[in-house]
Design brief:
heterodimer, A: 260 residues, mainly alpha, globular, B: 298 residues, alpha/beta, Rossmann fold, 4-stranded antiparallel β-sheet, 11 helices, 14 strands, ABC-2 type transport system ATP-binding protein (chain B), P-loop_NTPase (chain B)
């Protein structure tokens, strides 16, 4: 039974390519400005108090690794791509339910579990598109600037980013089965992901509240650590993956019990 | 085993009962008409049967599978065709791509045969389809896997008269081949034409369940006669005429007898114009199921 998976994958293709194109352009723009900020970055690190650097997740900004890990990835991957995954997933069930598309689908010999799982499975399309697109622009950018990046670290920063994006998708899919209106589901998912990202940053400012950040998914994905220190937090990635599975399980549980 | 057996099926939304203790069975090889005004609860019954919504109480069996048993119901749906009232096609797909999608789920051994009867423009995107083309695509997807049971919700809405006739003939042929058709409609004449038996639903309650011929006999015809001059009502009105209303030289009534007898009777008068039509569903309700007019419910 792959009819839904195939159909959903086709549906996601255009959006994924558009998003990848936009993010590639944005990344290229980051590379264009890197040489100009490189010198100031060292100064920036010297003058600004450490907490501000922490909030921005900035470390070794004057090196290419620090720049990509502390500037490019947190913005493009953690924030923008995370929001995209939450947004797209939040529309998956709610839109089909709203347009009565699900009536036709579920009139066939298809279980509700497989509807959710195949729809989530179709996220391989934006995952592959984004990873390939971003890796390509990184390699090109680094080469043009005459810098070099550790290939393993580059691979890992992409690989370990996947569970993070999946958690964002999990938040979206849960919203998608809870809310009847597409707009409500998508707005809620988007706001949750943005809010979690903000909480993670802010909680680092105050040691008393740093534990709050432990509840946010971005705490478990640190591109700076991967690129600058070559620290690969596999356990953290595992935690994200487990969270994703729990969210999908929750979505299935809610969906099989509700009227559509 | 009945194809569909509904037992005391109830679905409540707060205080409103969209379906209220409905019970009936549809046998194999039968065209069952499910008749009721818009908002009576027809679609609710169908969505309960498909497991899309859950009953508040009571249950139903579709091809022997209890609708509360998700696994069994999912398996039974391999042998079910469904034409919804609101067609939720993926509009960016072409007709052909949509049929390919459904065939991957259920098969399509009768696709070509059906496309000769109902011919939506397969190479165009569904978003460009007229209501009639969408309905035809819906009919093809509902029958292309040769299901034992077909549940059709207002199946001829949007079809031109020629295609409606074709649909009726197709359904009769399916019935003769042993298939079961559950035909929901608010159009009495259509149900009269194709159905063997009819259940009438009103405000969520099943108010009648009978053979179509019995209903026809009791349903009568709506007649309006325009006479050349005023006529003595006592001479004109017969026993078979009920609800007679006379305004000047126009007489309106519901005729419950044989059509031939009515025509025999009418030729004895000087007549300008005659209109004989099917009674409105509301009138049938009024005459045979109590006096209150059905209100728009769920």
């Amino acid at each position: 039974m792959t009819a839904i998976l195939r159909n959903e994958s086709g549906k996601l293709l255009r959006g994924s390519l558009t998003l990848t194109g936009l993010l590639v352009m944005l990344s290229a723009f980051f590379f264009v400005v890197f040489p100009t900020i490189q010198d100031e970055a060292a100064l920036f690190e010297a003058v600004y108090p450490e907490y501000l650097l922490l909030l921005l997740g900035v470390e070794e900004l004057h090196t290419i690794e620090g720049f990509i890990g502390g500037y490019l990835f947190p913005f493009i991957w953690v924030l923008l791509a995370g929001i995209y995954f939450a947004y797209v997933s939040a529309g998956m069930i709610s839109r089909d339910s709203r347009t009565r598309r699900l009536d036709l689908t579920l009139a066939g010999p298809v279980s509700r579990e497989s509807v959710v799982l195949e729809k989530v499975g179709a996220l391989w399309v934006p995952l592959v598109a984004l990873n390939l697109g971003l890796a390509a622009v990184l390699l090109a950018g680094v080469a043009v600037l005459g810098e070099s990046l550790d290939a393993v670290a580059l691979g890992m920063v992409h690989l370990l980013g996947v569970p993070y994006l999946l958690v964002c998708a999990g938040i979206g899919i849960v919203c998608s089965v809870i809310f009847d209106r597409v707009e409500t589901a998508q707005a809620t998912a988007l706001v949750i992901v943005f809010f979690l990202w903000l909480v993670d940053g802010l909680s680092q400012l105050n040691p008393d509240f740093e534990w709050v950040g432990d509840l946010t998914p971005s705490r478990y994905y640190d591109p700076s650590a991967i690129l600058v220190h070559e620290e690969y937090a596999l356990v953290d990635a595992g935690i994200l993956l487990a969270t994703f599975l729990v969210l999908v399980g929750l979505a299935v549980l809610i969906f099989v019990r509700r009227d559509i | 085993m009945s194809a569909i057996r509904i037992t005391d099926l109830t679905k409540r939304y707060g205080e409103i009962a969209a379906n209220d203790g409905i019970s009936f069975a549809v046998g194999r090889g039968e065209i069952f008409g499910y008749l009721g005004p818009n908002g009576a609860g027809k679609t609710t019954t169908i969505r309960l049967l498909l497991g899309l919504i859950k009953p508040t109480s009571g249950t139903a069996k579709l091809l022997g599978a209890d609708i509360r048993d998700r696994r069994a119901l999912t398996a039974a749906k391999a042998d079910l065709g469904y034409l919804p009232d609101t067609l939720g096609f993926e509009e960016r797909l072409t007709g052909r791509e949509a049929l390919d999608y459904f065939s991957r789920m259920r098969g399509d051994e009768r696709r070509d045969e059906l496309l000769e009867l109902f011919d939506p423009p397969l190479e165009q995107r569904i978003e460009t389809y007229s209501a009639g083309n969408q309905r035809m695509l819906g009919i093809v997807q509902a029958f292309m896997h040769d299901p034992t049971v077909a549940i059709l919700d207002e199946p001829t809405a949007g079809l031109d008269p020629l295609k409606q006739d074709r649909m009726h003939a197709f359904l009769e042929a399916e019935r003769d081949a042993g298939k079961t058709i559950f035909f929901s409609s608010h159009v009495l004449s259509e149900v009269q034409r194709v159905c063997d038996r009819v259940g009438i639903i009103r405000e969520g309650k099943l108010v009648a369940l009978e053979d179509i011929n019995d209903l026809l006999e009791r349903g009568g015809k709506e007649v309006r006669v325009q006479l050349t001059e005023s006529v003595d009502e006592r001479a004109f009105v017969t026993e078979q005429m009920i609800d007679v209303e006379t305004v000047d030289s126009t007489v309106r009534f519901t005729y419950t007898g044989e059509a031939a007898a009515l025509l025999d009777h009418l030729v004895r008068f000087e007549i300008d114009d005659v209109d004989i039509g099917d009674p409105q569903l509301d009138d049938i309700f009024k005459h045979y199921y109590g006096d209150e007019t059905p209100s728009e419910g769920r």
